[in-house]
User: Which sequence fits this backbone?
């Protein structure tokens, strides 16, 4: 073997050793990185579920509010019908009530749809921000 061959093999051996040391160091860091990413993902999920629960409570409260308003409106309608003195008056009261309920139902549906969209958006936000911190590339 000449010195050139020894020099090349020594150089390759040094590069291999350096590469192996780098891999070993990164392997030691990997559990910490994975652990931190898992913790961040867990926190993001918890925040998302908390936000979703609050949003569902808000949505349910709005549904109960609407149900109470609709029940009150129904009772008032029945009371007005109880005082009807002619078929024409019955038709007028019924048409007014139907028109009012259609308008009310449309408004309530739009409000619930907007609230559902808000809840969905706010529920996914913690996931978006939480998971963007998680490293996606390997060592």
Assistant:
């Amino acid at each position: 073997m000449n010195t050139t061959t020894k020099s090349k093999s020594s150089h390759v051996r040094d590069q291999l050793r350096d590469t192996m040391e780098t891999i070993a160091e990164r392997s030691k860091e990997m559990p910490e990185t994975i652990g931190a990413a898992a913790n961040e993902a867990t926190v993001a999920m918890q925040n998302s579920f908390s936000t979703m629960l609050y949003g569902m409570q808000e949505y349910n409260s709005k549904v109960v509010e609407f149900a109470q308003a609709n029940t009150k409106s129904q009772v008032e309608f029945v009371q007005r019908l109880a005082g009807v003195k002619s078929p024409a008056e019955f038709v007028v009261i019924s048409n007014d009530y139907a028109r009012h309920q259609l308008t009310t139902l449309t408004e309530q549906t739009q409000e619930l749809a907007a609230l559902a969209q808000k809840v969905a958006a706010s529920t996914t936000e913690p996931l978006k921000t939480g998971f963007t911190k998680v490293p996606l590339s390997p060592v």
